[in-house]
Amino acid sequence: MRGIQVTDANGQCSFITSYPGWYPGRATHIHFKVRLDSTTFATSQFAFPDAANEAVYATPLYVGRGPNPTSNEEDLIFGTSKPEFLMMDVVENGNGGYDGTYIIGINSPTGVTETDLNPQGFKLEQNYPNPFNPTTKIKYTIPEEVKVKLGVYSVEGEELEILVNAFQSAGSYQVTFDGSKLSSGIYFYRLTAGSFSKTREMLLIK
Fold this sequence. Notes:
- The model is unreliable at 109-119 (pLDDT under 50).
- A hairpin with a 5-residue loop joins β7 (146-153) and β8.
- This protein is 3% helix and 38% strand.
- It has 2 domains: 1-116, no CATH class; 123-204, Immunoglobulin-like.
- The protein is built from 1 helix and 11 strands, in the order ββαβββββββββ.
- The two termini are 29 Å apart.
- It has one helix at residues 50-56, and strands at 29-36, 39-47, 89-92, 98-101, 123-124, 135-142, 146-153, 159-168, 171-178, 185-193, 196-204.
- It has a 4-stranded antiparallel β-sheet with strand order 8-7-10-11, with no helix packed on it.
- The chain is mostly beta strands.
């Protein structure tokens, strides 16, 4: 599904969509953004339970593609310390489909145009420029001294380059990534700091 949903007075909306497919290196998921007054307040993704994925991909409509080999635990994004915050709650509806519920909590920010769903004080920003060729800057913030690892990965999950792998003091940091040795395509960069883990997607166009 692609489009815009407007919530009711209770902040709720509903829609019907086909069950999503999958691509290598990622668990089954859907992207979403939540907006208020034309400003993006939250952007994230949610996953589906592995059991539901296995059941759906065994049906005639999906069996030709086969099951998704990447589980939620193995996913670069959903394999976090608190995966329940990224999981769609689904139940069979008796009509050959599923009913799902996902709750998104948002605090209206002051002077902030975009907020990651992250209550811990850590932040990994979207790279800039994006798309890029061949270099781009990645900014992140850590609220305490912690061991930091920042890596770049292919869509298959292969670790391509480690940009940072060291203890760092609290503060904001910026790293430049050079993709001149890579071909055009989608790549992921992942920040791991203590129990915090966040992955974002970037696009290299040559």
